[in-house]
Design brief:
This protein is an alpha/beta fold and about 300 residues long. The chain is about 35% helix and about 15% strand. It has a seven-stranded mixed sheet with strand order 3-2-1-4-5-7-6, sandwiched between helices.
């Protein structure tokens, strides 16, 4: 493995993307639910579904003595952006600064929309170098509707324009802090099951998979072109069983299907051998403002 990850706990790190299902708002619920022995600091941290990294960046802040950190995601565009921040932060900032200047120099909303669509097409061609593609991803995330990342079955980003007046496209200071934080982080791009080789009794794993939709109108898990359906949820539970056999402590987040149907016991049955805790979360991804309110989500663990 790479050398120990050392990050000063005087630094604070923010996710560089807005993300559907991002965990920033749930940090006050998740961190008190971590295993008590993590306070000793000397452990390996694994996050198989990294997303925007809200939990990762708080872990790097709270536990600067972690032995190793491994992150993974199936979304290649996302992982390439993590790699770019770690290895080529200066090039990324230069590209973002140009996008920011070009976008904000436009006089009308329609001109900005056309620029957005041009960058979206360019991003979907995937012909740019890593720094360019990563800057396009961040730009699109900051200027698209609701800050979503969604692709269709052809792996084409298809979120519409977001009409933001002054989006923060280039947060150079935060990117440089993240580059330092990620310096010795092992970054993988593949199926989450590949992280099993890092699991042992000194490992803690946090799992934030694509959520099972709580209703037919609430379905949003298209971060990658392959759907995360019920069979995938069951495969993930089997992966958790394998972690448990290795003596690895893990914590998993998912939707609470009982928000809509109190009789839906899919997760209660699937994880009946483990501890299930219901916590409050705000539903942010909804086109109708009055329908954005508190719902329950699940925290499931083997400790």
């Amino acid at each position: 493995m790479k050398q120990k990850t050392k990050v000063s706990n005087t630094n604070t790190f923010r996710p560089f993307l807005k993300w559907a299902g991002g965990k920033s708002q749930l940090i006050p619920e998740i961190f008190p639910s971590l295993p008590q022995e993590l306070k000793k600091g000397h452990f390996t941290y694994v996050e198989p579904f990294i997303g925007s990294g809200a939990i990762l960046f708080r872990m790097l802040t709270e536990f600067p003595d972690m032995e190793n950190v491994i992150i993974n995601d199936f979304n290649t565009d996302l992982i390439n952006t993590y790699i770019t921040i770690r290895d080529s932060a200066g090039l990324l900032i230069t590209s973002l600064e140009k996008l920011d200047l070009d976008y904000k120099s436009l006089k009308t909303e329609e001109e900005q929309r056309e620029f957005f669509l041009h960058i979206r097409t360019t991003f979907n061609s995937r012909t740019g170098n890593l720094a360019e593609q990563s800057s396009y991803l961040i730009f699109l995330n900051k200027t698209c509707f609701n800050g979503l990342f969604r692709v269709n079955s052809k792996n084409l980003f298809n979120v519409p324009f977001g009409k933001y007046k002054n989006p923060l496209i280039c947060d150079a200071e935060n990117i440089l802090r993240l580059a330092k934080a990620l310096r010795n982080v092992i970054i993988l791009n593949g199926d989450y099951s590949e992280t099993l080789r890092y699991a042992n009794q000194e490992t803690f794993v946090y799992l934030d998979p694509p959520y099972k939709p709580i209703s037919s109108t609430a379905s949003f898990n298209s971060y990658a072109k392959n759907a995360f359906d019920d069979s995938e949820q069951i495969r993930l539970k089997n992966f958790c069983d394998e972690l448990t056999k290795k003596g690895t402590k893990w914590l998993l987040s998912n939707s609470d299907l009982k928000n809509i149907n109190p009789e839906d016991t899919f997760f209660d049955d699937l994880y009946s051998d483990y501890a299930i805790k219901r916590i409050k979360a705000k539903r942010a991804i909804n086109s109708i403002g009055k329908n954005r309110g508190e719902i329950n989500e699940l925290l499931i663990s083997n400790y």
